[in-house]
Predict the structure.
Amino acid sequence: MKIAANLSMLFTELPLRERVLAAMRAGFSGVEIQFPYELPAIALKEVLELSGLPLVLINLPAGDLMTGGPGLASVPARQAEFDAALQEALTYAAMVRPACINVLPGRLAEGVSREQALACLAANLRKSAEAFAVLGIRVLVEAINPIDMPGFLINTPEHLDELLRAVDHPNLAAQYDLYHMVRQGLDVAAGMRLLAGRIGHVQFADVPGRGAPGSGELDFAPLLEALRESGYDGWLGAEYKPGEAGTQASLGWLAQWQQHS
């Protein structure tokens, strides 16, 4: 398992382009970016080539999700906006070629039943999986804890399992974030077993503060072992808050993880 730096949370004192080079110098094997669209695709492609790092993951544009709204993917009234976001991501991804693209389910919108939202989400995931299959890019869907993001539609491994079964597309997999699972007090290893063979990407941060490994209470060793036992051999995305001392000061865990992963 190789380790990618999430450049939406790490090296944020630098412009996005410079973060790619900082991740390379720090020893990461790849990078992921939540929403890279502020940087022209050709500029990101050039700096990725310069660094030699692969782009592991980006997110589909999510509308107002990050500012407290419901987002796009599970809101029937926002279908045209979702379709535009899908097209924007396809055009961008055709240039920068991420391995995966994450479609965030979003929050349950006012006036929409959970059943309506899930049906809309499943249809949009199926549409996205079909579209990105042409580019050889895997589509992911992520569960997020409702403590940090109240009202989020998909929270648990069971939710992911039901959704993957409903969509039933070979180009759709789960994005499994250890932080979001532990934050809810869930059995993380049991979730891995439930989703075994259908986890396309893993992210991590310590709990409770979402800091670097070693900054909180989480023992990562048994979780990483459980991941291996589930058959997962993909990327680990470092998506954590480095703290006031900055990213470089937070990287004490990295060399040890690289030796054991």
